């Protein structure tokens, strides 16, 4: 009897929509919390952005081939976001759109490089 109950529970989990990779415990499009890896045309690519979202506020850490900063702040108004990375001697701005629960895209710019826009895609 216990085997039948265990088999029924396992089968129910496989068939239930909440037991797959898109469960509520996985990433969602309205929460940017997580580790994002980005690629694009910015000279220091690739980058890594670790974010925590509380309400519409974003905080975290940033690193790329040359720079690191624990001073990351921003906001999100789904689906658009704006993030500022403060290196102390300059800032990097990231603006973009959440495309899916695992992908976002947009542009990066910094006054150190003449505020030229550098397109990027990031995934988690």
Mind explaining what this structure looks like?
Strands 1-2-3-4-5-6-7-8 form an eight-stranded antiparallel barrel. With 124 residues, the chain is mostly beta strands. It has a single domain, classed as Beta Barrel (Lipocalin), CATH 2.40.128. A hairpin with a 6-residue loop joins strand 1 (34-40) and strand 2. The longest helix is centred in the N-terminal third of the chain and has 14 residues, at 2-15. The chain is built from one helix and eight strands, in the order H-E-E-E-E-E-E-E-E. The model is unreliable at 4-23 (pLDDT under 50).
Tell me briefly what this model is.
By secondary structure, the chain is mainly beta. It is built from one helix and eight strands; from the N terminus they run H-E-E-E-E-E-E-E-E. It has one domain (27-123): Beta Barrel (Lipocalin).
Superfamily (CATH H level) name: Quinohemoprotein amine dehydrogenase alpha subunit, domain 2
What characterizes the major β-sheet? Answer: 8 strands, antiparallel, barrel
- Strand adjacency order, main sheet: 1-2-3-4-5-6-7-8
What fold name stands as the CATH topology?
Answer: Lipocalin
CATH architecture: Beta Barrel
The tally of domains stands at: 1
Which descriptor suits the 3D outline? globular
The secondary-structure class comes to: mainly beta
Order of helices and strands: HEEEEEEEE
The unreliable regions are 4-23
Determine the strand fraction and express it as a percent band: over 45%
* Gap from first CA to last CA: 42 Å
Which percent range fits the helix content? 10-25%
Number of helices: 1
Radius of gyration: 19 Å
Give the beta-strand count. 8
């Amino acid at each position: 009897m216990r085997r039948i109950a265990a088999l029924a529970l396992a089968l129910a989990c496989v068939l239930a929509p909440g037991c797959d990779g898109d469960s509520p415990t996985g990433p969602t499009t309205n929460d940017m919390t997580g580790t994002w890896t980005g690629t694009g045309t910015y000279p220091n690519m690739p980058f890594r952005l670790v974010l925590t979202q509380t309400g519409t506020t974003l905080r975290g850490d940033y690193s790329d081939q040359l720079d690191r900063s624990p001073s990351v702040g921003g906001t999100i108004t789904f689906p658009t976001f704006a993030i500022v990375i403060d290196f102390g001697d300059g800032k990097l701005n990231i603006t973009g759109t959440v495309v899916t629960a695992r992908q976002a895209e947009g542009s990066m710019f910094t006054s150190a490089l003449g505020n030229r826009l550098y397109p990027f895609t990031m995934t988690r």
